[in-house]
Write the structure tokens for this entry.
Amino acid sequence: MLFVIFSVVSCATISSFDQQAYTQTTSIKVDALNLMDLAKYDYATQENNVKEYLTKQQKIYEYEKNRPKNEITLKLWDKLLDKDGHLLGGFINRWGKESKLNETYIVEAKKLVDKAFDQISGLESKKIKPSDIP
């Protein structure tokens, strides 16, 4: 019986819950949404805030990247951070290129980024199944 339990646990396709990952994800979500609000200002005046945020983001990404059996979460992070995508990475990239972004775009982009962060933290807390993620 012990062998069967060990086999099932060792064959898990997703990492187990990690409180630190969950806490970091929810924390950086708040930072990201606050940063996005600043996109109504010239990027050049907010560049230090962007760099500070990107450093925090890089730290959590590195943490997630080095967790075992964490491929699904990492794919979600990759999608969120893709500079050519339509989520946070693309938002920051566009802000840098256009200098300022309009309020309507910021509000709509924040909704998408908020949902993406919720998927990552939801997966971490096991509130959603990996198969529920598009």
